């Protein structure tokens, strides 16, 4: 066995910072480690929509391929970016203690969502954030936003956009917190604020990574992602799923919205979760309850329509 593990990471400042956090945690257990940057086509080309590269999960796939090719011992991801289906032979070895799961509204003058002028331009490429913004403020003009956190902040600083929505966890990890940033009351994405290490259980370093796992974060992640897995990724729809602890009860809240934010179906469920199966069961049960609502069929059909329409002549 090598003296220390190699962690694979994307090259963005946030990805590198998160990898440093994993290295610091490993160091606490007496292990050194180093990192290797994996570049993917989605990183190099900032103009082309991600869907052209294979959509959600494209960055994760590049790291998984490098991992399976033996270029490293573990891959570090933001859990929010990790699809439900991992590459065969790989598992999430650990979840670092969760950072903030909140979304922030960043404007040049510290405005809140309600203070934005009519028709203000807000940047976000996330279907969820888009729909949640439009639900609160149907007048807003939402434009897509790609690139790393610094590039996104520049769009506001240069006056190109009136506001952007970013994860508080990312800003905090980069030390880019801004006094004027306003927390949004949104239920956020499954896994937001959680850093994970993906590895092969047959790796000599798997147990070392495993020792970094934070149990309460893992149970939150399992509940949030079990809900996501139930809905399935066959249709791209605005979806939020967020678990929090109230004493020893795990409270999972999820919502599904129409793309324009006009329709929302939301439901909460709590359970005294003690193990992984309990957390997975909570996500599954919440979906069963939401799926039985009369409005759900219409919501799901509406978000499938554009894709089907795309393949018809
Ligand atoms: N898709 C980009 C992404 N993936 C994870 C984070 C933030 C960090 C986290 O959620 O842990 C971000 C940026 C953002 O949403 O502002």
TrEMBL record:
One of its GO terms (biological process) is heme biosynthetic process. Keywords: Porphyrin biosynthesis, Transferase. Transmembrane segments: none annotated. Residues 8-200 form the Porphobilinogen deaminase N-terminal domain. GO terms for molecular function: hydroxymethylbilane synthase activity. InterPro entries: HemC, Porphobilin_deaminase_N, Porphobilinogen_deaminase_C, Porphobilinogen_deaminase_C_sf. It catalyses: 4 porphobilinogen + H2O = hydroxymethylbilane + 4 NH4(+). Its EC number is 2.5.1.61. GO terms for cellular component: cytoplasm. It is an enzyme of class 2 (transferase). Pfam families: Porphobil_deam (PF01379), Porphobil_deamC (PF03900). Tetrapolymerization of the monopyrrole PBG into the hydroxymethylbilane pre-uroporphyrinogen in several discrete steps. Belongs to the HMBS family. This is Hydroxymethylbilane synthase. The gene is hemC.
